[in-house]
Amino acid sequence: xxxxxxxxxxxxxxxxxxxxxxxxxxxxxxxxxxxxxxxxxxxxxxxxxxxxxxxxxxxxxxxxxxxxxxxxxxxxxxxxxxxxxxxxxxxxxxxxxxxxxxxxxxxxxxxxxxxxxxxxxxxxxxxxxxxxxxxxxxxxxxxxxxxxxxxxxxxxxxxxxxxxxxxxxxxxxxxxxxxxxxxxxxxxxxxxxxxxxxxxxxxxxxxxxxxxxxxxxxxxxxxxxxxxxxxxxxxxxxxxxxxxxxxxxxxxxxxxxxxxxxxxxxxxxxxxxxxxxxxxxxxxxxxxxxxxxxxxxxxxxxxxxxxxxxxxxxxxxxxxxxxxxxxxxxxxxxxxxxxxxxxxxxxxxxxxxxxxxxxxxxxxxxxxxxxxxxxxxxxxxxxxxxxxxxxxxxxxxxxxxxxxxxxxxxxxxxxxxxxxxxxxxxxxxxxxxxxxxxxxxxxxxxxxxxxxxxxxxxxxxxxxxxxxxxxxxxxxxxxxxxxxxxxxxxxxxxxxxxxxxxxxxxxxxxxxxxxxxxxxxxxxxxxxxxxxxxxxxxxxxxxxxxxxxxxx
Length: 552
What we know:
- By secondary structure, this protein is α+β, with helices and mostly antiparallel strands.
- The chain has 4 domains: 5-62 and 157-165, no CATH class; 65-146, CATH 2.40.50.100; 198-231, Dihydrolipoamide Transferase; 281-307 and 344-551, Chloramphenicol acetyltransferase-like domain (Chloramphenicol Acetyltransferase, 2-Layer Sandwich).
- The chain has 10 helices and 21 strands.
- Strands 11, 14, 17, 18, 19, 20 and 21 form a 7-stranded mixed sheet that branches. A 4-stranded antiparallel sheet has the order 2-9-7-4, with no helix packed on it. A 4-stranded antiparallel sheet has the order 6-5-3-8.
- It is globular.
- The relative contact order is 0.11.
- This is Dihydrolipoamide acetyltransferase component of pyruvate dehydrogenase complex.
- Belongs to the 2-oxoacid dehydrogenase family.
């Protein structure tokens, strides 16, 4: 049997007559020419060759396959970078076109990116938690046919490889001095690179742990958080075992002081952190008012009693027969179950009213280009006017991961109140309830609107001052909870009486209960004038207080 041999090569050397690597094995163990990564690894194990040939010599071009870079494309307006949440594949996996490759977090939404072609995963660009710029390489995929890519062009070797037996380790006899202590920790060879993710390195710094003193159990010797925990725990155990045996036992166990806990932000909150940091670079101004929603609430009750059959979640047998006839003659099919509903909130009516107000003030159908999230303020900004009214809605994630999301409802101007209610129900169904992941919104909800409407009334608050998202939109509104307040039936007469211009007889000034709510809008003061925002809010208020215009 041959002793283990080491294959040494000099960078840039050439082989005059290159032969299959199998011919290098004089022992006859290898009979099939080496043409894949698996064969190279097999040869490296037999001859003790390092398994990273790209650092020692360039690979020979594979005439049967081509390594193609998979570039991260822009997945939404104003997106400049994405965070890798998790890889759905690993190196060596065989994938088909449109198979999911990676899940990324961008613009406070989690998106699965699929492969543009079939092949084998050659390499991955980063680990979970890493940030990638738009336009950078996500991974490299080896596809059938074509030539190898330029950066993997063959660099021929001039001199023949030298096979030299690897020296056998010297025999050693165990001794008490060379036996490691159970409490001692393994250390790395001086100068060796410590493999660890940024989150793991931060975790190590928080616990004052030198990564070089820990032997990683992850892939390729990567140090994980579990390794650090085990290292810290072993240190505590060793310290307790080193206490003198004759130390007197305390009469009562001392109470350990409470310690603070450091919690690393998850992907959702990191995205929110970056977005809000960019938002506060925008000069804000706000406008607040009180809106009477009594009439539009009565309209809501009327609509809730007359929901079209294709939107209803619960149908009676007679309704099902009627719907079947409608589908036969008009083709109006029933919407998907996760879009069906039996009640309507005020939000779809308020969105429809806001769309009508945007028609009167077209600056709010525009977005700023480039958006604030793209980087420092541009010296030559412009406005991009959209042909449709795209309004984002703010949703809070009820799962432990938390986070605020702003999916967009497109073409509100051409959508019915029932269609808007159906889409809002669908969005609520997409929010996770148990895991710590971010919601995966389909493409119809991705991107940014020209306005955002946030409903804090569902929590119970009356007033808030919203922050303009850094997506290029110009304004955001927040509505508080609905409450009952007494109001004069004849406001004009009450004002004249209050001013002393008129006297009121007994019973002339009648008071009635009205439903009201506080609203506050914030805008980007670099582009929007204060009077422009005030006019938008007042137009919206008039439509809400006189909702008959919604039927026009």
